[in-house]
Specification:
The complex is a heterotrimer of chains A (443), B (482) and C (249). With 482 residues, chain B is of the alpha/beta class. Chain B has 13 helices and 18 strands. Chain C is of the alpha/beta class and 249 residues long. Chain C has a single domain, classed as 3-Layer(aba) Sandwich (Rossmann fold), CATH 3.40.50.300. Chain C is built from nine helices and twelve strands. The chains are: A alpha/beta (443), B alpha/beta (482), C alpha/beta (249).
């Protein structure tokens, strides 16, 4: 990772990148230069940085990842079945080791003005639209700006509804040389537009890749987006994600983040509620086992009156895993009539697990209703006792309660097939979940 | 206050006749800080060599530190070389000659707080003849205390009379290397209080009885050390409800509490230093380091604070819960009005088994003030079965102020239970209307609702101070409504 | 005592009251009935001075004072009392303390001496019995943790203590079971006097079985469209509001 700056020039010369920018787009060239310049200046974060106090990326720093990815792979459509949602018809875009796989994907370009394509094809079509994202202080977003290679574009025109959910599957395979990929996802909803999009990050085998993704969402007036990200990469992988959301008048964006995999996973979400009547909901569930480290950093800016936000995150940490939550809500001056709710609840399942949580409020207006809560603990003795007194074994009772704790977040999702998929995952992942295997039949 | 006025007068009068305040007055060191100044302070105070060395070590460390910038407060940089580090008590020359020269607003406030007239002059810093001083007034109470073996007096006295105790505990809770202001305080502290409660003794009175007088003129770098030996109990009140006129812009005190097995320390603070005027001009910078070490098993330390003063407050009374079953509590009301800024909270560090902590913080922000709660709850690996409950509420009065919450929660033990709740809202219109419909004026209604909001904290204060604290809130909120 | 003349009131640009005329003499009990959304609660809020209402036309005279010019507390000092439909909870503020502050504010206005805590407690002791309020509710925070019935009884208890000249009872009967209703009604009846007027706002005829009004008014769509005596209420109960509407049209 340390050598990224020196690799930049070389990267600009690669074939893939030439494809991506053969329109000599100024915005893209500038974004890349600005991105690498920011990284060259600040470097990788260290725990001395307040925003990285609890997450040390030193293991990433020392590793070498290859930027050039081979197009060759032996992934077949059927290999991805396990990552699909039963009884849900989606429009699927598949990326393998960062590269778009057209054979496994379908795209949309209809006369109604709905565009769904992979980024490099979209650019190759000659679109001039500026997709610049201001990375601000987010250094991994800057790196994504510098090295974005492919990804997805979903643009829905005014008053249009994309009925089928979009499913982006980013597959990492166990390559000889660990790869790093910089997918860019650009979602723009026009006025009154509606869409649903699911990002899945999965591994085939013990992939040791690094994913550094940036999802940029712009929701225009009265539009509605339900966004999911399900991260279940291999335990040897590293996952870094930035989600930037910009909301215009009366728009509603819900984003669910489920973090199950990776050695280190860090998700930074930044939301700007720029105009009145906007609502943003961030839900999250993170499960840690082994020595996994999962970190969610949320920052919600209430910039206008009559805006509402909700953050609802739960963590379950087993073995020697560590979970970090930092939720920050800023109510700016003159943004009156605000409601902001923040909740982070955590379960520690093992003596070596750790949770660090910091739910912050910064409020510069007075007509607000803000509340936050955080709890860290183990399963309730009373609830355990209740179940045991009904004849359920302690082990099963624990599994049931842990499942219920997590399922609470899953139940906030509107797509039932996604819920069912995740519930099966949960049963598979939670320790002693063999005890509640029979629950599968009930889902 | 429970002191009987006659007793007061007689003590004060006696001391004056004894000519207590004399030579110190002319001793002022030129501005600036260097080793010579520290040697001079130490020499003036006739300190033992070990203490001078301790000060110098602190000074050397301070030189390596930078002023902290992480608190959510903003102020022009302090020029540490412009201050004089040995100037207390303040020369009479600069002080008002009589009450007529004192800001009438200040006197009005004393009236409202119900402070006895005879104390007005003293609090306003008038150069009156009868100067009360801690050491002098202390004598009467000292008798009562020494009968049970309690040592209580000025820090300088303790250094002279009980050097072994001071040496044993000084800097063991807040080391000289702790932070910028603690290091500075360690190098240049002028005086403060020392208190030792021997084994099994329940201190026969609140160590607050004459503190209103004791608290003034202790200087800008105050040092307090309280040691509760095994099975002892003490309640200590620092500060006073009257706004005190003070020439020192920067206050950087250090308070260290040591609680041994089965002991209990209750430390209550009412802080009402000059907050500056309505336009944010003037006012004290209050940068304090307060920490308690619950060293012994079953020990308990309870911090209760009502903070309404100072232009800038930066303080986090903390508990290190080392002993098994030890308990730490933090109850706080922080009110900021006009241009005041407060960044305050607590740290609860759970090290021992079955340690418990409770944090109740009530922040009130009015005018153009900024009020931040900053707290840390840390459950370390060894803190089996520990618990924390935190509740942290903010109330906003007016649309130009701010309220912020920065809680850090770090849990490394599975058997711990940590709960944190917080809310921020403006003063409820329905509650206001309800009270006003019953005939209560808007200002009284606001006071009533604010006091209700703070009730959980006030009930932790000694009775008479709870009453004063309520009045204090009302006075501090003046002009915030409407 | 109270004279409302051609009162028009807007809430957020929507006209809610469209020309109310109502005269209440000392000692009279008036019932105002009407369907949901007719403006009943708006009337009680405007009379007591709650913010958020814009009076666009008309006058309200109370004992030769222009009521609309006064702050809520000034109206209370003159003797206007509102028994709230939804009494608010005020955490940490002692019920008795709040009431003592209110009583003393009103006594001061009347030129009477303030009561100290001892006298106050003696004064309220009988009043507590009037509505069978548990005495421990006095030392609790205002309305906090009170049951619905206790809140309504607390309102009548406060009325008994503050001895208003004009009591406005805003849906005091809603949410009460029959036993609680009887207790509240008994309390109100005990407070009827030739010097005290009452305006009862209600949905249900049921309340009027227990507190007999001198006059009944029908408020529909921001206007009083019919007035009568107790018999009118019975008829409303039987026939609903539509016939009154038609008659008025």
């Amino acid at each position: 990772m340390e050598s990224l700056v020196s690799k930049f020039e070389q990267f600009l010369e690669t074939e893939d990148n030439v494809t991506l920018s053969n329109n000599s787009l100024d915005w893209l060239t500038n974004a890349r230069k600005k991105g690498i310049a920011h990284f060259a200046k600040v470097g990788l974060p260290t725990p001395r940085d307040e925003h990285w106090k609890y997450t040390n990326v030193a293991p990433i720093k020392k590793k070498e990842f290859s930027l050039t990815n081979t197009k060759e792979h032996d992934v077949k459509a059927a290999d991805l079945d396990v990552f699909r949602f039963k009884n849900l018809e989606t429009i699927e875009l598949v990326f393998i080791n960062g590269l778009f796989c057209s054979a496994l994907s379908s795209t949309v370009s209809d006369e109604r003005g709905i565009v769904l394509n992979n980024l490099s094809s979209w650019l190759a079509e000659g679109h001039q639209q500026d997709l610049t994202v201001d990375a601000g202080d987010y250094v991994f977003a800057s790196l994504n700006n510098a090295f974005m290679s492919d990804g997805a574009v979903l643009h829905v025109a005014d008053n249009e509804l994309l009925e089928k959910p979009v499913h982006l599957i980013f597959v990492a395979t166990d390559t000889e040389q660990a790869t790093m990929t910089y997918p860019r996802i650009d979602i723009r909803l026009g006025k009154n537009a509606e869409a649903k999009l699911i990002e899945s990050y999965v591994s085939l085998g013990e992939a040791k890749n690094l994913t550094n993704v940036l999802t940029n969402i712009i929701a225009d007036e009265n539009s509605q987006l339900e966004h999911y990200r399900i991260q279940e990469e291999s335990d040897a992988a590293y996952h870094l994600a930035n989600i930037f959301i910009e909301q215009k008048k009366d728009s509603r964006v819900t984003s669910h983040s489920v973090s199950l995999g990776s050695a280190i996973a860090r998700v930074d979400a930044k939301v700007n509620l720029s105009e009145t009547g906007t609502e943003n909901i961030l839900n999250g569930l993170f499960l840690g086992k082994g020595r996994q480290h999962t970190d969610h950093h949320l920052l919600v800016h209430h910039l206008s009156p009559h805006t509402r936000s909700e953050e609802y995150f739960k963590g379950i940490l087993d073995n020697a895993s560590r979970g970090v939550f930092n939720g920050k809500v800023v109510v700016h001056k003159d943004a009156q009539k605000i409601e902001a709710i923040q909740s982070n609840k955590n379960l520690l399942l093992s003596p070596n697990a750790e949770v660090d949580t910091k739910p912050e409020l910064e409020i510069y207006a007075d007509d607000v209703k803000c509340a936050h809560g955080a709890t860290i603990g183990r399963l309730s003795d009373t609830e355990l006792f209740y179940l045991r007194s009904r004849g359920i074994s302690e082990e099963k009772a624990r599994a049931l309660l842990t499942f219920a704790f997590a399922d609470d977040v899953v139940n906030r999702m509107s797509l039932v097939p996604v819920r069912e998929y995740l519930e099966r995952k949960l049963i598979g992942q939670l320790s002693s979940s063999d005890q509640i295997d029979d629950l599968k039949d009930l889902i | 206050m429970s002191t009987n006025p006659e007793e007061f007068d007689s003590i004060a009068g006696k001391e004056y006749k004894a000519g207590f305040v004399t030579d110190v007055e002319t001793d002022t060191v030129p501005p600036g800080l260097n080793e010579d100044v520290i040697r001079l302070i130490s020499a003036k105070k006739e300190e033992p060599e070990w203490l001078l060395e301790w000060r110098l070590k602190a000074y050397q460390h301070w030189l390596t530190l930078e002023e902290p910038t992480w608190p959510n407060v903003h102020y022009p940089p302090v020029d540490f070389q412009a201050s004089s580090y040995y100037s207390a008590p303040k020369s009479k020359e600069d002080a008002p000659k009589s009450l007529d020269e004192v800001d009438p607003k200040l006197l009005e406030t004393y009236e409202k707080l119900g402070i006895p007239l005879r104390e007005h002059a003293k609090l306003a810093g008038v150069a009156v003849d009868a100067v009360f001083d801690s050491v002098s007034v202390a004598t009467t109470f000292k008798k009562k205390l020494s009968d049970v073996g309690v040592i209580f007096g000025s820090f300088s006295d303790a250094v002279k009379n009980h050097p072994e105790l001071v040496k044993k505990y000084l800097g063991t809770v807040v080391p000289i290397t702790d932070n910028f202001y603690a290091a500075l305080n360690s190098a240049v502290f002028t005086d403060g209080s020392f208190c030792y409660i021997p084994k099994g003794v329940r201190c026969p009175m609140e160590l607050s009885t004459y503190f209103r007088i004791n608290a003034s003129n202790t200087g800008q770098f105050e040092r307090t050390l309280i040691v509760a030996d095994e099975g002892s109990h003490v309640s200590y009140l620092e500060g006073c409800t009257a706004p005190m006129r003070d020439e020192n812009q920067l206050h950087a005190a250090v308070v260290e509490l040591v609680a041994l097995d089965d002991s209990e320390i209750k430390y209550s603070t009412v802080q009402n230093w000059y907050p500056g005027d309505e336009n944010g001009v003037g006012g004290i910078y209050n940068f304090v380091t307060k920490r308690a070490d619950c060293r012994g098993k079953n020990s308990k330390v309870s911090w209760t604070q009502v903070e309404t003063g100072s232009a800038i407050t930066w303080k986090y009374p903390s508990c290190i819960l080392k002993g098994e079953n030890s308990v730490g509590e933090f109850y706080s009301v922080a009110l900021t009005n006009n241009y005041q800024q407060a960044d305050t909270g607590t740290k609860m560090i759970h090290l021992g088994k079955n340690t418990r902590s409770t944090i109740i913080s009530k922040g009130i922000s009015a005018g153009r003030a900024q009020n931040s709660y900053r707290g840390l709850v840390k459950i370390t690996k060894g803190a089996e079965g520990s618990r924390n409950f935190t509740q942290c509420d903010s109330l906003l009065i007016g649309d130009k102020c701010g309220a912020h919450t920065f809680p850090y929660i770090e849990v490394k033990n599975q058997s711990a239970q940590v709960e944190h709740e917080a809310s921020t809202s403006k003063i409820d219109e329905d509650q206001l209307f309800y009270c006003r419909q019953r005939g209560i004026s808007e200002e009284d209604a606001v006071n009533m609702i604010v006091n209700g909001f703070c009730k959980e904290v006030f009930k932790e204060l000694p009775m008479e101070f709870a009453v004063e604290a309520q009045k204090l809130l009302a006075v501090s909120l003046e002009g915030a409504v409407g | 005592m109270l004279n409302i003349s051609n009162l028009h009131v807007k809430v957020e640009d929507k006209e809610i009251l469209k020309g109310i005329n109502l005269k209440v003499n000392a000692g009279e009990v008036h019932a105002i009935m009407g369907p949901n959304g007719s403006g009943k609660s708006t009337l009680s809020h405007v009379l007591s001075g709650r913010s958020g209402y814009e009076v666009t036309e008309g006058t309200v005279d109370f004992l030769d004072n222009n009521l609309l010019e006064l702050s809520p507390e000034e109206r209370a000092h003159l003797g206007v009392f509102l028994a709230f439909q939804y009494p608010v909870e005020i955490p940490g503020v002692n019920n008795a303390y709040m009431l003592k502050a209110a009583l003393n504010a009103i006594r001061t206005y009347r030129g009477e001496e303030e009561l100290d805590a001892m006298d106050f407690m003696a004064f309220v002791k009988d009043k507590v019995k009037l509505v069978q309020l548990k005495e421990d509710l006095l030392s609790r925070s205002v309305n906090e943790g009170f049951s619905g019935g206790e809140k309504k009884r607390n309102e009548i208890f406060q009325m008994a203590v503050l001895e208003p000249k004009l009591a406005i009872l805003d849906e005091t009967d809603s949410g009460l079971d029959i036993d609680a209703l009887k207790i509240v009604a008994d309390g109100v009846n005990a407070l009827r006097s030739p010097e005290r007027s009452m305006v009862m706002i209600t949905h249900y005829q049921r309340l009027l079985d227990y507190i007999e009004p001198d006059f009944v008014h029908v408020l529909v769509d921001g206007k009083i469209i019919k007035s009568g005596d107790k018999k009118l209420a019975l008829e409303l109960e039987k026939r609903g509001y539509d016939w009154v509407r038609e008659e008025a049209a």
